[in-house]
Every structure is written in C-alpha cells, then in structure tokens.
Amino acid sequence: MNTIGISVNGHAVTASVEPRTHLADFLRDHLNLTGTHLGCEHGVCGSCTLLLDDAPARSCITLAAACDRARVTTIEGLDDDEIAGELRAAFTREHALQCGYCTPGMIVSARDLVLRLDDADERAIRVGLSGNLCRCTGYVGIVRAVRSVIDDRRRRGIAPLPGAAREQLGPVGSTSSAGDGGPPAARPSARAGIEQRPAVTIPDFVPDRILEDHFTLASRPEEVFAMLGDVARVAACLPGVALTGNPTPKHVEGVIRVRLGPISTGFRGAARIERDPATMSGRIVGMGTDHHIRSSTRGEVRYRLLPVDAGTATRVEISVGYSMQGMLAQIAREGLVRGLAARLTAEFARNLERELSGAATGGPTRPAASIDGVALVFDRLRMFVREIFRRT
Ligand code: FES
Ligand code: FES
C-alpha cells in the first residue's frame, strides 16, 4: 500500500492506496466522486478526463499512487466554476448531450480550450476535443456549444490565457505548494456553501507490530483524561511533533520528525481521534508519509487510564501498533523501533507530568525538535557489547 496526500476539489485527502489503483477508481470508489466516468479504461475515450495540477489528464491511466502532493479537480469541483457554468448552459442550449456519459470529460477538456484559444476557431476546437469521444450525440452540437462560449467571452473582453495560465510544467505534484511530502495546501474551495466532506479519510488497519508500555502520573485520572483531550497541548508534549493545521477534537494533521543515524525523516500526515469518557480510554489512528525517503507509516495508539493511590494518581497504559512501508521499513529493525518508542513514551510522560503540574513545556507553538535515533543506536551498541562480555 502507498500513502498519498492529495488535494481533491480543494480538500486535503490522505489515503492508503494499492500501487495498481487508478486515480479514477480511487476517486469513484474511495471518495464517492462518481462524476468522473470510465469508458474505455485505456486512455482513448476521454470520459475520465479531470484536472491534475490544473491540466486536463486521463484518470484511468493515472495511478493514484503517482499523484502524491497533486491537486485534483473533478467535475464536482467545477460546480461553481464560471467557465464550466457557461459551458453547461451552452451544452443544454445547443443539445450537446444525449446520454451524458461523455459530458464530464467533455466539459473539462472544453474548459481548457475556452481558457486558451484566441478565438472560436472550429478546427482548433475539433482538434482540441479529438481526445474525447461521444457515442451518441455527435459533435456538431458540442462544437457549437464550445464556440458560443468562446465567442461570448471574447466579446465581453475576456482575453485567453496563454497555456491556460499554467506557469510550470512538470510531474504530477511538482506544482504543489507543499514542500516536504505532505498533502498540498488546499485552495479556497470552489464549492463554498455546499456540504463539506471530512477533510481526511483514515481507515482502520491491522498493525504489523504492537508495542505496549505504561507510566504513572501524579494527577487524578479525570485531569489526565481532560488533558489528553486537548490536542494542541498533547502535541506540545510529544517530541518531534508539530501541528500543521487547526486540530479539532476528532481530527489532527501534523508532522513528526525522527532522525535515525544519517536518515532524517519528516512524516507528514493526519490522525483520527476517538475518546470514551466512560472507560477513560482513547484511540488515535493515523497515517503519514515522507516523500523524500519514499516511506510511509500507519499507526494506532490506544490508551487507558487507571486510578492508583486511591485515585490521586493515574496509571497510563499505552499500546502502539504500527506498519511501515518503503525504505525506512528496510532499516527500522524491531529492536530499534522498540527502543525509540520507549524513549518517546518516557519523554512524553515527563512532558505530560510537567504540563499537568503547570510547569512550562515550551507551549504548543514551540519548534518541533526531532527524536534523535543516534543515541538509541549507541544504547543498543552498548547493550550488545555488554551482552558479549556477559557471555564470555
Ligand atoms: S476511460 Fe479514460 S480515456 Fe476512456
Ligand atoms: S452524450 Fe452520450 S456519449 Fe456523449
């Protein structure tokens, strides 16, 4: 599985996809954006055309895994687009559709022509739409509709944009504003005023490895549970973690930096938060990706608070499940990860204790320090040498 972070119609989406999943299938099956139609699934008919980093592209021959950091606009994302609106009206007026199967792809391609062409040259329009096949209407009405929109806009003094105002050419995702592998910054939604989908889809998963740990805090369980519900304060207690957006009680996006020897990682991702006050327990399920080292990880943290010392202190039981893919999975031996998790837990517990006692931890806006795995490697080396001496 590959973890990708993309912007779909202005919404940031992080998801785990099979390497073979096409962008069209991902949009239709995972995000329920069924306005992207599939005809030939060979890149011939143009039904699946959408905008990828603002350029028309065939989503049936584009792998979703290759779209990390890309900006995707489907026909649904053009609901409030001015040119698409004029094209829809013109298609209706000129009888440019019958069954409508080709229409979403046709509108996306036609919109690009309306942006670019100097005038309503019929030949240029026919050439421009030659990658979009219509099985039932024929092309006379379609060409007439596109011509009328171009004519009308030029008459109103709206000039063409050379190259459709695309300033950069490059692989998918290269024009994204995200610098380190995360989902691209979402643009202002073109669908303002309509129901918003949840920004990120984070499915459950079965972890490859599970680590368990516990620590005790000198505060009452209710205080600790309330504190764990404050996402920004909790993030401030986690070494190497920085938030990248405004967290909500159920959702958080951020980056975690870890250094393992010469490798410096910056996993950017999102997490879903669940809490149960009745059992004083909670669960955080997240996924992240580091574009530079081509690695991704999924993790699940479960915690449970138990009263100790007649309820004046709290035992925090934690279980961390994770799965890794990519280069980091090759080098991150279980012992190394186990040691790193132990250090992270110990430091987290210390910071929580300080935060609960009112002592400053640096606050939620402090710069994220990275978790240094080098010390960990030396720890393990020391243990290894000690073990050899013990045996001999
Ligand atoms: S379905 Fe993509 S080009 Fe036909
Ligand atoms: S309107 Fe039916 S395929 Fe084009």
Topology:
Blueprint (H helix, E strand, L loop, with lengths): L1 E7 L2 E7 L5 H8 L18 E4 L2 E4 L12 E3 L8 H12 L9 H14 L5 H7 L11 H16 L53 E9 L3 H8 L2 H7 L3 E3 L7 E10 L2 E14 L4 E10 L4 E14 L4 E14 H5 L2 H23 L14 E2 H19 L1
Parallel strand pairs: 1-5, 8-13
Antiparallel strand pairs: 1-2, 3-4, 3-5, 6-12, 7-8, 8-9, 9-10, 10-11, 11-12
Helix pairs in contact: 2-3, 2-5, 3-5, 7-9, 9-10
Multimeric state: single chain
Distance between the termini: 45 Å
Q: Considering the protein shown, what is the CATH homologous superfamily of the largest domain?
A: START domain
- Largest sheet geometry: 8 strands, mixed
Can you tell me the CATH class of the largest domain? Alpha Beta
Number of domains: 3
Portion in helices: 25-40%
Label the CATH architecture of the largest domain.
2-Layer Sandwich
